Amino acid sequence: MTSFWTGKRVxxxxxxxxxxxTFRRFDEHSGHQxxxxxxxxxxxxxxxxxxxxxxxxATPLDNRFQLAIEELxxxxxxxxxxxxxxxxxxxxxxxxxxxxxxxxxRGYAADAVxxxxxxxxxxxxxxxCEAGVYAFNDASLALHRRLGFTEEGRLRxxxxxxxxxxxxxxxxxxxxxxxxxxxxxxx
Length: 187
Known about the structure:
32% of the residues lie in helices and 32% in strands. By secondary structure, it is of the alpha+beta class. A 7-stranded mixed β-sheet has the order 1-2-3-4-5-7-6, sandwiched between helices.
């Protein structure tokens, strides 16, 4: 029997203190750092150690958590994902994902997102997942469309970086839409 958290290419796991070097390497690539969130001031090695140590012992709060994405065959950390903006009344949550630059286009993000959605829809009873993607991030938009997300709108000039404002594309998927593409396992 395999773990619920194991897909075809990746395994989702908690963040470990020794993951600090990969997160530091991730942040060294400004373009990828910006596509996931924003460019932040440089952090010391000790700052990364403290950040991962804090996450390693963090207790998920209101279905908000961060997980490491590990390549299944090698065990190498290739990215991370998180949930936030959880709304239990409406049954809605938001998520974000980042894959280390030299691991792009290997199916890791798609596999990780399916695992996350299977958990949030099938185990936590959420009804809808939302994601925000910068309009210039064609790869992420294509990934979300392949997974079955629907473009629900565009927030014009919503985020500011690199000296100008950028649009944010809002995508969504319901539990029913997910189950049609990725059926839940039989017990």
